[in-house]
Amino acid sequence: MEIDKKLTKKNAYEVLKLYRRYSRMAGEELIPEITDNYLFELKMVELNIKVERQLQAFKELRAITEAINSIDKQYLRQILIEKYCKWHNKKDYIIYDELMMSETNFYLKLERGVIEFARHYKNGELLVFSLEQLTRHNQF
Predict the structure, then answer these.
(1) CA 94 to CA 85: how far, in whole Å?
(2) Domain extent at residue 91
(3) Do the beta carbons of residue 54 and residue 29 sit within 8 Å?
(4) What is the pLDDT of residues 45-70, one digit of tens each?
(5) 67 to 11, 117, 124, 132: CA distances (angstroms)
(6) Sequential DSSP letters for 94-111
(7) Lower CB count within 10 Å: N or C terminus of the chain?
(8) Has this prediction a pTM greater than 0.90?
């Protein structure tokens, strides 16, 4: 089966764009640290999380960080973290300038990173498969 990249990316972008909101909802003490290798490190906090909203936000943060940490290539993790997970929202041109990449290369790698994120997020929950490909395959 072939992945429908357009719909898969749309799903992944929607989840990644919520990272900052979940961070605010979970509270600063629950926000994961970012290591030098662009991996997330969950804080070991023993809090009595009573508020359901905080607990849900923390669970979603964990799912997002685990998916990003599962991406093998550091530069793909770095692009996703810089674009979606840092507190201050940066313009794309600032990110690819800081990473010393061309605009084209940045967007190609961003697309690869988003597809990889979708594969790892909750065991591929964001993946969408192309029905057209399945239909053509079954006609023969």
Answers:
(1) 15
(2) 5-139
(3) no
(4) 655 655 677 888 889 999 999 999 99
(5) 14, 6, 9, 28
(6) HHHHHTT--HHHHHHHHH
(7) C
(8) no
Q: Which helix (H) or strand (E) holds 11?
A: helix 5-16
Percent of residues, the chain, with pLDDT higher than 70: 88
Q: Do 126 and 8 meet the contact criterion of CB atoms below 8 Å apart?
A: yes
Q: At what angle do helices 19-26 and 52-69 cross, to 10 degrees?
A: 130
Phi, psi (rounded to 5 degrees) for 34: -105, 125
Task: Kindly state the tokens that stand for 39.
Answer: 């991996």
Beta strands (DSSP E) in the chain are: 33-34, 40-41
Number of domains in the chain: 1
Beta bridge partner(s), residue 41: 33
